[in-house]
Every structure is written in structure tokens, then in C-alpha cells.
Amino acid sequence: MTVMITxxxxxxxxxxxxxxxxxxxxxxxxDNFANSHPEVINRIRRITGTAPDVVKGDVRDVxxxxxxxxxxxxxxxxxxxxxxxVADSVSKSAEYYDCNVVGTLRLAQAMQQTGxxxxxxxxxxxxxxxxxxxxxxxxxxxxxxxxxxxxxxxxEELLIDIAHSLSPLxxxxxRYFNPVGSHESGLIGEDPNGxxxxxxxxxxxxxxxxxxxxxxxGNDYPTPDGTxxxxxxxxxxxxxxxxAALDCVDKQRVLKVNLGTGQGTSVLELVxxxxxxxxxxxxxxxxxxxxxxxxxxxxxxxxxxxxxxWHAKRGIAEMCxxxxxxxxxxxxxxxDQ
Length: 337
Ligand SMILES: NC(=O)c1ccc[n+]([C@@H]2O[C@H](COP(=O)([O-])OP(=O)(O)OC[C@H]3O[C@@H](n4cnc5c(N)ncnc54)[C@H](O)[C@@H]3O)[C@@H](O)[C@H]2O)c1
Known about the structure:
Layout: E1 2-6, H1 11-22, E2 26-31, H2 39-48, E3 53-56, H3 62-71, E4 74-79, H4 86-91, H5 93-114, E5 118-124, H6 147-163, E6 170-176, E7 178-180, H7 199-207, E8 214-217, E9 229-230, E10 232-234, H8 235-248, E11 254-259, E12 265-266, H9 267-278, E13 284-287, H10 302-308, H11 316-329
Parallel strand pairs: 1-2, 1-4, 2-3, 4-5, 5-6, 6-11, 7-10, 8-13
Antiparallel strand pairs: 9-12
């Protein structure tokens, strides 16, 4: 069975490819390389011993999608491609709706036309917005507070409607919390362009000396140490969940599942854990809260255990160890070929 992975050259997609290939599945990466480096393909080959098939294409290009799905005899799609910066989604909102919502619609249409029925979609915990109750369960109301979160919610909605149409797809929507870490080889990892938006790659770049200090936005939140709490999960655990989702996506038409550990970790706790894993000092400066940031959120991981038989195996220490291993071996990311 060949699985097409849109966004398969990116941080999470590359880890999903490796896990799928280790599980003996054929993959074809479909990516426009807008936020990834072609060297990642070579790294996947070095880890797995096999070069994955690659098509350079955009998820809004129905014709290239159709020819890829047909030519590779795909039986399922993992739809990871998307734009993911909360800040950019405010300043470039049309671009975000085009890529994340229109791109998902075009992909669904290409699947309908080629008879590929099963799709696993990379959604996000941002669909929930400000939590009423913690841990966040999948039946919590959806009220995203930024355009990025709304694009993910709208992509979910259109997939659900198509799942109930006359030409239905089977849809598994995986709501990621905070994926971090890297493959244990240190050959693939998170390599954002410019200044990282996410905490872990920011801390890594401070540790390696590419950035002077970590700005912590807000130390007066109602949390034990005053800094924001998130649910960090190891990207290799997250990748494994996609295999479980592929195996059960056709059992029920629509599945919405959190991929989180159920454990919250504060910014300062993550900084401490990273300092221990790397043996490096992480200088921290405190800055005011950013508008729209949420004090604390973490997942209920019960449904993932029930329906996917999945739970996170790796803890914060392993996440920091592997993130540091990647950064140490690739101080300049994939530019260090
Ligand atoms: N990283 C996170 O913290 C996080 C959290 C929740 C959800 N997600 C979602 O998971 C997915 C993957 O995130 P990531 O961290 O791996 O991001 P990433 O930017 O590393 O990977 C996304 C990949 O998609 C490709 N891409 C972007 N637009 C495309 C288009 N129009 N056509 C084809 N390819 C395109 C990029 O080149 C890149 O390779 C995204 O959909 C993101 O919204 C990520």
C-alpha cells in the first residue's frame, strides 16, 4: 500500500515517512518545499536505507495531485502540508486560508476523483482556543483565537462534510499539541527558517549559540512558576500514531483524536530540562505576555489510547536529549550537509 504524504519533507512529515518506511509501507512525499530543504530526502534514505519517492508539487494543484495519486497507486493520504505560524497567520491571513483550507479542499477533490478514500489530517490543538476545562477532550467546544486555528477548524469541517457526501472519504483528524524532539539518529529534525516561532527550536538555537537568550513572554500567568504550560510530545511518538490512524481510518467515517501526553510542562521547566540534557546555560529574559497566548493547555490522551491504542512513550528528558542531538550535529540545520 502506497501512502502519499503531503508536507512529507517538513519537520513532522519527515518523521512520519521514516516510521512508515520502517513499518514496510511505500511512501510518496508530495511537497512544494516552501518550508523544507531537499537534503531531508537524503537523510530519510540514510536512516531507512531506501530513498522515498518524491513529487515536487503544491496541494492546491489538483492535476498534479491526481497524477501523483494515480501514478503511485496510492491507497491513502496523510495530509501534513500546511502553514503553521500563528503570527504569520495574522499578517498573511489570505495566504493561510489559501494553503490550509483551499489546499485541503483541492486534495479532497483529487482523492474523490481518483477513488482514494482514506485521509489522515494534521490538525492542531489551536482549534480549541481558550480552554473551559482541562485536560482538553475532543468534545470541548472549538473556538480558535487566531486565523491559523480557524484554518485548521475549517479544514476539519470541510473534511467532515465530504465524509458524509455522496463521494465520501474516511477521515482521521489528529489534533497535535506541541511536537518536539527529533529522530534519535540526529539526521532529521526541526529546522525553521529565520527566528523560530516555537519554544524548543528557539531554546536549541540559544544553546548552540545562534541566538543570545530566550525571551519568555509572561511570568505572571496563574501557573505554579508563572510561565505558560503546554503539552509537549516527542515527534517520533507522534509519527507512530499516524500508522495506528491509517490502520483504523476506514473503520469509522470520521475520527477526531488528540495527540498529546496529558502532561503539562511550563516554559521554565522545559528550559531546565534542556539545560540538563545539553549541559548548556540557557539565558532567559522575561518580556510581557503576548496578546492571544493561553496560560495553560494540555490534552486528554484517553481517546487516543482507546481508539488508536496509542500513548506517548518518551518523556521531556528524551525530547530535550533528541532535540539537542539534532542541533549539536547540525548547528545550521540542513545547510550542514
Ligand atoms: N509543529 C507544530 O508545533 C504543529 C502543531 C500542530 C499542528 N501542526 C501541523 O502539522 C503540520 C506539519 O507541521 P510541521 O511542524 O512539520 O511544519 P513544516 O513547515 O516543517 O512542514 C510543512 C511542510 O509542508 C510543506 N508545504 C507547505 N505548504 C505547502 C503547499 N501549499 N503544498 C505542498 N507542500 C506544502 C512545506 O514545504 C513543509 O515541508 C502542519 O499542517 C501544521 O499546521 C504543527
